[in-house]
């Protein structure tokens, strides 16, 4: 049983912004750069660039008679299966995530998940114990969002609720507010520094968790051998 190394850990970074020159793309790049510096491997999925279809088909609902997953969803699921960390990077528009992000959650993260499984708190086989990171931006300030109840509402629906139904080991959320054009270079650098810190923390957390899990598996292996 070989030891887990940083190179064994993968981060899937999903970006939901239509402008390739947006600050959100700079955020994704900064996150990926820090992952590489930590010796782990990142994969960036630009949902707009790949033409991801956010519309959930009736046959993709597990309750439907002809249930089956579309090929594009199967491809995304392969990336998720090998990821230790799933990071979503997106802006807050009209108090909500972009439709392409909610569509990704509907079609990919929620693929095959039934209402019965959610109601009975059944662990999500594919997502259980993965690390989930949200990096969001808004033109409004965080206090402005909080005053209108939008911040707490988003935290409940995305952070807390998704953590529960998808069985994530942990959910972290880094929000960057007052992201308006033109953006001060000093403030941009400060925000990207926070993103890098968040990525470094995620790398450390999943590496520690992987080592702990390996210790448990080794102990179980030795106990089984001793009982032979």
TrEMBL record:
InterPro entries linked to this entry: Flavodoxin_fold, Flavoprotein-like_sf, NAD(P)H_dehydrogenase_qn
Domain of life: Bacteria
Keywords linked to the UniProt accession: Oxidoreductase
GO cellular component annotations of the record: cytosol
Sequence ranges assigned to domain Flavodoxin-like fold in this UniProt record: 10-171
GO molecular function: NAD(P)H dehydrogenase (quinone) activity
Keyword Oxidoreductase annotated: yes
Entry similarity comment: Belongs to the NAD(P)H dehydrogenase (quinone) family.
Record's protein name: NAD(P)H-dependent oxidoreductase
């Amino acid at each position: 049983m070989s030891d887990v190394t940083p190179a064994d850990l993968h981060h899937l970074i999903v970006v939901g912004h239509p402008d390739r020159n947006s600050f959100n793309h700079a955020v994704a790049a900064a996150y990926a750069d820090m992952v590489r510096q930590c010796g782990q491997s990142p994969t960036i999925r630009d949902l707009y660039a790949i033409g991801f279809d956010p519309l959930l088909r009736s046959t993709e609902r597990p309750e439907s008679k002809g249930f089956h997953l579309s090929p594009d969803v199967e491809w995304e699921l392969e990336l998720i299966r090998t990821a230790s960390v799933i990071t979503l990077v997106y802006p807050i528009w009209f108090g909500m995530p972009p439709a392409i992000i909610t569509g990704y959650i509907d079609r990919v993260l929620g693929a095959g998940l039934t209402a019965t499984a959610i109601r009975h708190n059944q662990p999500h086989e594919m997502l259980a114990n993965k690390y989930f990171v949200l990096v969001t931006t808004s033109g409004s300030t965080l206090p402005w969002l909080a005053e209108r109840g939008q911040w707490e509402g988003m935290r409940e629906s995305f952070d807390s609720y998704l953590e529960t139904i998808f069985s994530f080991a942990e959910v972290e959320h880094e929000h960057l507010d007052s992201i308006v054009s033109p953006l001060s270079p000093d403030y941009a650098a400060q925000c990207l520094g926070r993103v890098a810190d968040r990525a470094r923390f995620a790398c450390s957390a999943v590496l520690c968790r992987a080592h702990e899990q390996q210790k448990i598996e080794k102990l179980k292996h030795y106990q089984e051998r001793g009982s032979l």
